[in-house]
Design goal:
Elements: E1 5-6, H1 17-34, H2 38-41, H3 47-55, E2 66-68, H4 72-86, E3 92-96, H5 101-113, E4 118-122, E5 135-141, H6 153-162, E6 166-170, H7 182-185, E7 189-192, E8 207-210, H8 254-263, H9 272-291, E9 299-300, E10 312-316, H10 320-329, E11 332-333, E12 335-337, E13 341-345, H11 353-369
Parallel strand pairs: 1-11, 3-4, 3-5, 5-6, 6-7
Antiparallel strand pairs: 2-8, 7-8, 9-10, 10-13, 12-13
Helix pairs in contact: 1-8, 3-8, 4-5, 9-11
Length: 384
């Protein structure tokens, strides 16, 4: 649809021309011509480190503190398990009860695998107070996936460190659009996905951060061959690599990494601080335009103050799913999160103010005509 307005970059970023060309080069000029030699001649083997260095400035980290590997879920397991092992007798993990489900699922699986772990799922407002001198780790999502509410990651890190706990941050909904200073804030560990604002494509690999002062202290529990000090020596016993390379496990997914590399190109010309200012203006505009419609049944679920939310806005409505489906047919792509959240992302690399105004105009039409009542919009699909 040529006039489609894409407000779902907080779920999956769109492909650019650079992505298409990068994948063509990979297949036609590298894989096809070089075959297995391309691991050396085309630098495939170094992609995890190269992309980590590209992402590092976006999250306020050093190039030697970030690597690209696996998925967010796998990285959460690796980092949480490593933190627990390093913390000795401490066995409590504190996390937000209403956080993105995979974060809790991973911790629950870790607790089933490793007896004696105490999981403390607490309300958002109680997160800081739940970290006491028995806590080993605080897991916190920088931006809440439903409401877009932004945590004060620096303050939470200071609070956790005062209690002797480590901090593991999930930056999936903030990397690329919200300035962070992980190194300066002394955040211990972090991960985030490459397919949202970083535009790496569906299922793109995640990034993983370990503060350099923690690197020699922590061991990757998934001790695969790529994390070995000498992967191609094929030695019988595992010896972890130095620095971030030890957080690799299996063979790097080169095609996916190439797409992510292209997706990161847009950040060469844009500073995250400038993007943050743009996204705040776009989300303010969206809220103002929606509320100017009058009585719509939509209830703002995101913080009203721009500085307290990420690059997304959520509204509640009992018929949220059907409204989103009708809106998608009208050319405005958002998404739905159960039970009643209409969620819209405002990626400042490609969303404009004029698009925001037009999106609200189409939303008004869907609501006024009650187009969402049509049976086809009530049919729940596997991906919402």
């Amino acid at each position: 649809m040529p006039d489609r307005i894409y407000l779902d970059g907080n779920s999956l970023g769109p492909p650019g021309e650079a992505t298409r060309e990068r994948l063509r080069i990979l297949v036609d000029e590298q894989w096809d011509r070089e075959l297995v030699a391309a691991w050396n001649t085309c630098g495939w083997i170094d992609l995890p480190q190269r992309l980590g260095a590209r992402i590092a400035p976006l999250i306020g980290a050093g190039a030697d503190e970030v690597i690209v590997a696996d998925s967010v879920s796998v990285n959460l397991f690796k980092l949480a398990a490593a933190a627990l092992r390093a913390q000795g007798t401490r066995r409590a993990i504190v996390y937000e009860a209403d956080d993105f489900p995979t974060d809790g699922y991973v911790l629950q699986g870790l607790a089933e695998f490793w007896s004696g772990i105490e999981l403390r799922a607490v309300p958002r407002a109680e997160l800081a107070d739940a970290v006491d001198d028995s806590a080993a780790l605080l897991l916190v999502s920088h931006v809440h996936y439903k409401t877009g509410e932004l945590h004060d990651l620096q303050a939470l890190t200071e609070r956790a460190h005062a209690a002797g706990a480590l901090v593991l941050a999930d930056l999936s909904h903030s990397a690329g659009v919200i300035p962070t200073q992980l190194s300066a804030w002394r955040v211990d560990l972090a991960t985030g996905c490459g397919y949202k604002y970083l535009n790496g494509g569906p299922g793109a690999p995640a990034f993983l951060y370990v503060n350099r002062r923690r690197q020699a202290w922590l061991r990757n529990p998934l001790s695969g061959w790529m994390g070995h000090a000498r992967p191609f020596a094929f030695e019988g016993d595992y010896q972890p690599a130095e620095g971030m390379a030890r957080w690799l496990c299996g063979t790097p997914p080169v095609v996916a990494l190439a797409a992510l590399e292209a997706g990161l190109d847009g950040y060469r010309l844009a500073e995250v601080r400038a993007l943050r200012a743009q996204s705040m203006a776009l989300t303010d505009l969206f809220i103002a335009e929606v509320e100017a419609l009058g009585s719509t049944g939509l209830e703002l679920a995101s913080p009203r103050e721009a500085g307290r939310r990420g690059a997304q806005v959520s509204f509640r409505h009992p018929q949220g799913y059907a409204i989103v489906q009708a809106l998608i047919e009208a050319g405005v792509v958002g998404d739905f999160r159960a039970p009643d959240i209409l969620r819209f992302g405002f990626a400042p690399l490609y969303v404009t103010g004029d698009q925001v105004r037009e999106a609200v105009r189409r939303l008004a039409h869907v609501l006024e005509t009650e187009a969402w009542r049509e049976p086809r919009f009530q049919q729940r699909r596997a991906v919402t």
